[in-house]
Amino acid sequence: MSYVDDIADKLAQDTMKVMARTGDDRLYEEVAKTIAASSTTLEEAYITAVRVRLAAIRGRKVLEAKLKTIEPKS
């Protein structure tokens, strides 16, 4: 990863933690607007990191739901 990607990913991780604690599922958009005012390069990397993380969460939920349908009930 590049320096910009590292910074963007760390910020994305921190944002996701705050989103989980507050329930504000659009906080990342507010952060992205703030970043964009100074660095569109960082904003793009940040948005990508957030989207990848959100997609992974959704994918994980699908897998967990599927496992529940095939696991034997005890």
* Poorly predicted runs: none
Largest sheet descriptor: none
User: What structural category arises from helix and sheet content?
Assistant: mainly alpha
- Rg, please? 16 Å
Give the number of helices.
Answer: 3
Straight-line distance between termini: 45 Å
- Which percent bin holds the helix content? over 70%
Write down the overall mean pLDDT: 94
Number of domains: 1
- How many beta-strand segments? 0
What is the string of SSEs from the N terminus onward? HHH
Taken from the alpha-carbon principal axes, the silhouette is: elongated
Q: How much of the polypeptide forms β-strand, as a percent range?
A: under 5%
Keywords summarizing the entry:
74 residues, mainly alpha, 82% helix, elongated
Task: Please specify the SSE layout and strand pairing.
Blueprint: H1 3-22, H2 27-36, H3 40-70
Helix pairs in contact: 1-3, 2-3
Give a verbal description of the structure:
With 74 residues, the chain is mainly α. It has helices spanning 3-22, 27-36, 40-70. Helix 2 packs antiparallel against helix 3. The longest helix has 31 residues, at 40-70. It starts with a helix and ends with a helix. The mean pLDDT is 94.
